[in-house]
Fold these 2 entries.
Entry 1:
Amino acid sequence: SERVTVPHIRAMREKGRRVVCVTAYDALFGALADAAGVDLVLVGDSVGNVLLGYPTTVPVTLEDMLHHTRATRAGVKRALLVSDLPFGSFQVSVSDAVGSAVALMKAGAEAVKLEGDYTEQIEACVRAGIPVMGHLGMTPQSVNLFGGHRVQGKGSKGESIIDTAKRLEDAGAFSMVLELIPAELAERITEAVSIPTIGIGAGAGCSGQIQVLYDVLGLSAGSFRHARAFVHGSDCLLDGLRSYTEVVRDGSFPTSENSF
Ligand code: KIV
Ligand code: NA
């Protein structure tokens, strides 16, 4: 069916259709997410903790993101492909931001996402023809400031997130992720802006949801309150690998049917 574009994502909010988003980091899983019919695939910098074994997203480089964007591009045919600007690739200057975003677009992204209050960077990317997704609340690249992956915007601190959300919209963001914030605050932000809000740990009142693919598939080490495993991936895969180990050991694989 028809490819999903940035105007499609924006229009989904007006039509009251929830935007379904998931991360992917390579061609294999990008193609699976695409086949499932999700609207948007994010090459998240969560590739750092999820796949590369880093403790946080802080060490993820632009080179890492380009590598995984190229791979995911090869698998995603229909969903909108968005890539994260990693820590350090956009904060220092507007020209860094545009340069990094251009590189992600050349690697196959159709939009970029950046964390935090960087309206000048967003404006400059949009001016250059690059759609930008915002990301507010618990922004993982600032984990050292927060002292952990903690819920943000509790109580009176919520007002400043609402204010920032409005400014991201004014700067030209086409949507924004709201991560680990109280559900009521996420609803207020969603009312305060006209672009789709995409929640993760932000309740049911957002315009759409995003999850880390490996959480959805039950392939993550931990379990999180904001997530749900819709298939027990690790158990399933471990069963398969144990069977393989067994049959090689006992000599029942390969058989003549596997031989030439
Ligand atoms: O990197 C990521 O996976 C993300 C989503 C969780 C929003 O930024
Ligand atoms: Na991210």
Entry 2:
Amino acid sequence: MTLGIDWTTDWIRRSAAVVSEHRGELITLDREIGDGDHGENLDRGFTAVLAKLDDLPADASPGDALKLVATTLISTVGGASGPLLGTAYLKAAGAVGQEKELDGAALVALLTAARDGVVLRGKAEPGDKTMIDAWTPAVDAAAAAVADGKDEVAVLEAAAAAAEQGAEATEPLVARKGRASYLGDRAIGHRDPGAQSSSLLLRAAADAAAG
Ligand code: ADP
Ligand code: MG
Ligand code: MG
């Protein structure tokens, strides 16, 4: 079973739903080590994405849908996370091109390109207490699942579980990028909001695949 446009649009709808559902939690996390707007930023962005999703042509590819997310997040989300996630979705769209059906290897290419897009834009390294700390273990787990011969659902499940662990693992870290880096040791004990939201987005991808 491969994943096509129906999975992609379901992922996007579930992303919007989960961001809206966790808006307050993301605001609280960002209030602790940032400026308290992360939940609002992402909710505004994904609400705008939802409004445009029905305009996608019937023969749209997964890449077309990812590109719509990218351009909408870049134009509607103020704050660091808009351009960072926007670049992630733009690079992910480029990685899958006009392929209509994505197998495990294509999903790994998509996730890798997304992570690389965030790094290209924000120059964070693993352990800097950013959204990279959710994306990088997700990419590694997805690649390992493909190497083990797992199907697409299992690949995305592995990515989501690794992202959740990665987000939790930001709690003891000192931040070296973004607003939280101004806090020094005071960021210790708090989860990075961007890592948490990225883990929610990856869980939405797995849930959409599981059906
Ligand atoms: P802002 O900090 O501008 O208010 P948001 O609150 O929406 O933007 O997003 C903050 C999140 O962005 C952080 O929790 C972190 O995960 C992520 N972030 C910030 N700077 C970087 C960076 N250079 N690289 C990767 N992620 C970053
Ligand atoms: Mg913020
Ligand atoms: Mg802000």
